[in-house]
Write a structure and sequence with these properties.
By secondary structure, this protein is of the alpha+beta class. Helix content is about 65%, strand content about 5%. The chain is built from 10 helices and 4 strands, in the order αααβαβββαααααα. Strand 3 and strand 4 form a beta hairpin. Helix 1 runs antiparallel to helix 3. The protein starts with a helix and ends with a helix.
């Protein structure tokens, strides 16, 4: 049921985003007279940029809501009297103040046996840190603090925004070049076959270029994980950050294997080889070694 819920929610969100962008373009076109669907490279580039960046920015704006609904995140009331919830809240707020955040993130948890955590939100002032019940049950206090330091570092670094902008640019380029090449290919066939050939070519090229784009985005994502590890070590302490990564390595089989709307923001330890190019997180062994060698302020 959990997987079905996430898939349905993901599809509905994407339909909503495309609908919102289409309506916005129609309204802008009606008032300005700009034909975004006209012929020429300029119109195509504008259309691809709007859809590519627009879809990413809307997803970013909705990221907290998406996380809460799709993951079932329960936000902790700042006035809670539950000792465990209060300790989690106070730890995140302490780390956030140390990171220089002026507005404290929302803090929540979700019921899942996975050992995982993530941070999301459209801005530093509207962020969310969430941990799984599995993580809270399986990790010791100092290890949890290391994980939370890592997530707070993501927020302080503005990683959600930079990932969104990069993904938006990649989306725009994928859409643009797929359609340009498809148009050239379509010129080589009979008129009655042109639409079908162009349509199929666009699909194939968007998949191929999308895979290449994923390599670029994943490469940046891995770099930001190393940076967040260093940030977590600065906030919580090197030993706590290393202990957290070692505990995650021990429990790696409990990390969530499902793709989802917050997949790039969650801890993972994917296999190496060719698939390493698509990894959003470096292998935990590499992260531990890098942290052991890093100069921490």
């Amino acid at each position: 049921m959990a997987i079905a819920k996430r898939v349905v929610f993901f599809v509905l969100v994407n339909i909503l985003i495309v609908t919102m962008l289409s309506i916005t373009l129609a309204v802008v076109s009606a008032f300005t007279g700009i034909n975004f669907y006209g012929s020429g490279y300029g119109s195509l580039a504008a259309l691809c940029f709007i859809y590519g960046m627009g879809s990413s920015l809307i997803s970013l704006a909705m990221s907290r809501m998406i996380a809460k609904w799709s993951m079932g995140v329960k936000v902790i009331d700042p006035n809670t009297r539950d000792p465990e919830a209060r300790e989690l809240l106070q730890t995140v707020h302490q780390l956030s103040r140390k990171a220089g955040l002026t507005v404290m993130p929302e803090v929540g948890y979700y019921e899942s046996p996975e050992v995982n955590a993530f941070a999301t939100g459209p801005t530093k002032n509207r962020s969310l840190v969430a941990v799984s019940s599995g993580l809270l049950q399986r990790m010791r206090t100092h290890e949890v603090e290391g994980v939370l330091g890592h997530e707070v570092a993501h927020i302080a670094n503005g990683d959600m925004v930079t990932m969104t902008l990069l993904q938006g640019v990649v989306n725009a380029f994928v859409m643009f070049f797929a359609r340009i090449i498809a148009s050239i290919v379509g010129q080589q066939v009979r008129d009655e076959m042109r639409y079908v050939v162009e349509f199929m070519t666009v699909i194939v090229l968007q998949i191929a270029f999308g895979m290449l784009g994923m390599v670029v985005v994943a490469s940046f994502s891995r770099w930001r994980e190393y940076r967040a590890d260093r940030g977590g070590a600065t906030l919580a302490g090197r030993e706590k950050m290393i202990a957290a990564l070692q505990a995650l390595r021990t429990n790696v089989e409990m990390t969530d294997p499902e793709p989802g709307p917050v997949a790039t923001l969650k801890i993972s330890n994917r296999p190496s080889g060719l698939m390493a190019l698509m990894m959003t997180h470096p292998p935990l062994e590499n992260r531990i070694r890098a942290l052991e060698r890093a100069a921490i302020a």
